[in-house]
């Protein structure tokens, strides 16, 4: 067909009565519509009429032309409607902007309608979807599958809520590695992108069913999905099956156990452990008991031995031994003991930091005194090293009342995870009626703090300590002791829904004591964490309306938020009820309900609600909580949080600015994001003291375990805040706590929000939520230790022992090295310094002496004068030139002596010629190794050799290794318990030794100076004015 310069002639043919002419016109208009759509738009009515004419045989062609015209007019909905009417003529495989745009519009409409249809919102039950729209989407799915683009097909199926199509896509993938890859992708997308909790669970069920049908199922991923679905019986069945298999299956069962423990769901793990097959026979139990007695005698050795009962194999057979080891893993004994050993072994806490803080703050200011104790606890969290407290007992004794409560509780943070000796360590402080033999009781503040400390030690693993805490709670009427007992019991029984404990906690709550009632409200939330606790929640909320104590109302409000942890849409009823309440404290709790229910979901509706309250509520507390809780909702997308709260960080309201700082700190904890640091940096100079406090703590959370090159400048800022005498107390407190956070866990811990499998660690999120309540109650600051996760890579063999194995790290050692310890400040001792004589002066004197000697020789009497001249120069030369100068002067060799006088420059010249040491670009890490999160991408797991990992994942946490050479001699890492007495406080020993050595070094020059003669007085001279 010749080139067309106008569409007028073709449009005229549309008015002809012949259908053939109309069809001819439409077919040619379809070819030129993108060039002459503006002309065709004037006659679009004729084209539409042809489409609506049922008797016209080519109405689909008319619909296609009309669709393209409306597309150019910008009416995408009309364009899509006519494209659907075009049927098969609308080619979804055509590579054009028109088709791409309409396909995107088609998918958006389909997804929106499917979501409304599947979620069944009120008033939207009768949503109908155009079958033509469905046909287009299914054609797109087929196109993706045919092209091997399974990821795109999985995404379309999930967005469209089409489980049937998801199953079809996965099953059409090639059996083997291809299908496993598609399943892994579907699982990852399901965890991270699906908003609806109910649909997410349906997808997980489908993925599990399909996973089990492949030749080599990934049992680790399957068990993680089952844990999310709370299907303990199925997990127990899989573990039993693996334990009865060969060695590879046994090791895989142990790895699954360690991965499940990382998610910290105490009640779920207890259910799985209870469903495992018959426990070991009595002989094994007695052997375990004997092993436990030995462990209690040697705490550190016991910590290493809890995971590997060596006597089990011969006593009750291999299956019983395997079950025993798996029970130790699921109960938390084995992993906690390994991490405890790691933190003690690698402790690099610098006591000089604490000494500098202690020397800079006034002990009479209780806030700074308590903050220093808290910093020490966080600095040594989990290391069991309490040297600083033991060496400063007189200073520590200045804590009184609630400060004493906090100081005692800090021991729980230091000894966290010491399950075998926790109660014995706290025995001197525990209530007299329930303490071990030798416990003498004492102040109710010490007793309450000790009970709180027990909760911190046994947090999330409190089966053994629960009876004692219950007994202590029932046996006291003192509100301070009840306060500590409630917090300790809630921590020890976290998320267990323990009915007996709930009744006792409610009795304390209803006693209407402000101090005890606040802790009881929080404890209710800890006990029912994540379960919703409908009956308990309704009673607690009703009581919050009845009581007059703000502390009780606030404690109940926070407890209600913890009950809704991870419940998402199921919490909407309580959210509406609390956010519409007239009491600002209840609304404050409503903000935390949103944050906890939608933690890490990036839910748009939750973000919109929080932003709305952040700018509209009349209460500053509510606005602050609303902004802060954005950090919990955005935990899974930390890079978005600074952008979302950027404007709020510049608000005129200081409470909103504080909330923005803390939101960034919570969402970006341990990431070191540059955007987060850039947002927090200006807030360190905020005019309001508590905003600076929040910015300091948030910055410390963000920079934990980051390379020292990025942290050094912040350390200097902290030191300046702490030592500045005129700094506000609130700001100084924030700097002290930030110093403890920055080096948390002996510089071996970070904020672990997620496990390696990608699920959020419940204990960490709950710990951060309660930690933010330090705004009202300082003792709650210790909840931050629950979020600490050791930066460890620990390799184990089949006996759960640590073999000697190395891991390659492909980066320079200095990048992720520990920061250098601070040097102790040495007071300089003043002493008399001999008069310095410059080398040029010595040379000039030597030249004068030489000239005088020559003159004397020429005059015939130079011997005595030369000797006299040499004798007069020798003392000065000796002082100036050192040992090298003396032979030159004695020999009388002027030229040689002149050259030898420049001894100070000679070493410098030699050093310049010596090549500088070049830092190696890679190095080896020995098991157990410290691997910070940002270092993991540089660490390579062994791919050949004797020890190979059962499952190749990120090199973090505990990895079970397979021994490929079982007949060879086995080298194990020695336990630290043998040298515990000698190495109890290596940092303290170094810190004590440094000041002792420094005066000696400073005194050495003074002693040397006293042995030298005083310089000769100047020669007599006549003063000439």
UniProtKB/TrEMBL annotation:
Keyword line: Proteasome, Repeat
Stretches for region Disordered: 875-914, 994-1025
Pfam families: HEAT_2, PC_rep, RPN2_C, RPN2_N
Residue intervals passing through the bilayer: none
SUPFAM superfamilies: ARM repeat
Biased composition (Low complexity): 875-891, 994-1009
Family: Belongs to the proteasome subunit S1 family.
Compositional bias segments (type: Basic and acidic residues): 892-903
Known partners and oligomeric status: Component of the 19S regulatory particle (RP/PA700) base subcomplex of the 26S proteasome. The 26S proteasome is composed of a core protease (CP), known as the 20S proteasome, capped at one or both ends by the 19S regulatory particle (RP/PA700).
Reported function: Acts as a regulatory subunit of the 26S proteasome which is involved in the ATP-dependent degradation of ubiquitinated proteins.
Protein's name according to its UniProt entry: 26S proteasome non-ATPase regulatory subunit 1 homolog
Positions of the 26S proteasome non-ATPase regulatory subunit 1/RPN2 N-terminal domain: 6-347
Residue ranges of domain 26S proteasome regulatory subunit RPN2 C-terminal in the record: 792-973
Biased composition (Pro residues): 1016-1025
Alphabetized InterPro entries for the sequence: 26S_Psome_Rpn2 (IPR016642), ARM-like (IPR011989), ARM-type_fold (IPR016024), Proteasome/cyclosome_rpt (IPR002015), PSMD1_RPN2_N (IPR048570), RPN2_C (IPR040623)
